[in-house]
Recover the amino acids of this structure.
């Protein structure tokens, strides 16, 4: 590894440029397309598991409504309706015990597909191989780790829902004796809670998904940049999807195409953030990224 140095703000343009070169060299469009493909296959199972985890505490109907509302605001109401149909088709089936067991196994395997592919992409960025020599064990452990991230995602969503609910209740209580402009601050708090949710999710993925041991110093910086880029991209994509309606070109398959486009664009941002984390670690973090 090259000699490390202390980061200065004037280094940022060069760091972003080097990250862009490494990002382009890593075939991000191909990798994001793979993740998007697995996202479509995993999405129904992933959403159902999240509904079961968070819904057991918060109520499935409430969680379903919140999730579909977020999806609708991001990629449009048609895609949200398509996902609602997927959920109803899977959760409404009545089967035998054997079929249920097989279904649960398929559900768990399918729901981990996205995180499994992201782990593969991050390992490629950090030039690492899974620590298990046996391919079967390595695959199983990667799937177990991926399911762990689903649990983390469910926990973070639960915290986000609780905080949003508390803020909503708090604002109703204050409505009787506070001026109306004070509610703008509650909106800011709600926004900051959402940002914190996204930041923690990216930081956890950058820290624990790769087979490398990444330092928290690198993760903090990389997750911060990725969160900023993701929020900007989320706004621009929502604007594009709602105004231009690119899915209308594909007819009945439009909703699936929109989901794949959204995941693909989001994956491009995530991969850029991962490359930035790697570049930052190479230049400014000692001891080969070990925390």
């Amino acid at each position: 590894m090259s000699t490390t140095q202390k980061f200065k703000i004037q280094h940022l343009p060069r760091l972003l440029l080097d990250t862009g070169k490494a990002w382009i060299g890593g075939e991000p469009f191909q990798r994001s397309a793979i993740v998007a493909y697995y996202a479509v296959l995993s999405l129904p199972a992933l959403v159902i598991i999240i509904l079961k985890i968070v819904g057991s505490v918060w109520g499935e109907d409430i969680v379903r409504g919140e999730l579909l509302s977020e999806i609708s605001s991001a990629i449009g109401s048609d895609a949200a309706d398509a996902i609602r149909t997927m959920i109803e088709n899977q959760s409404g089936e009545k089967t035998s015990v054997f079929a249920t067991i097989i279904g649960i196994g398929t559900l768990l395997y399918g729901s981990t597909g996205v995180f499994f592919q992201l782990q593969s992409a991050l390992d490629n960025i950090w030039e690492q191989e899974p620590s298990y020599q046996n391919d079967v064990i390595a695959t199983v452990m990667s799937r177990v780790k991926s399911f762990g991230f689903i649990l983390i995602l469910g926990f973070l969503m639960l915290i986000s829902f609780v905080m949003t609910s508390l803020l909503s209740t708090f604002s109703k209580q204050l409505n009787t004796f506070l001026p109306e402009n004070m509610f703008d601050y509650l909106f800011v708090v709600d926004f900051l809670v959402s940002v914190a949710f996204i930041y923690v999710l990216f930081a956890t993925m950058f820290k624990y998904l790769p087979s490398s041991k990444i330092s928290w110093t690198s993760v903090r910086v990389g997750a911060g940049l990725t969160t900023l880029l993701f929020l900007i991209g989320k706004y621009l994509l929502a604007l594009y999807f709602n105004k231009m309606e690119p899915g209308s070109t594909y007819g009945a398959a439009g909703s699936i195409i929109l989901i794949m486009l959204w995941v693909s664009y989001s994956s491009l941002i995530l991969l850029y953030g991962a490359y930035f984390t790697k570049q930052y670690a190479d230049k400014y973090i000692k001891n080969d990224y070990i925390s």
Summary: The chain has a mean pLDDT of 75. Residues 135-174 form the longest helix (40 residues).
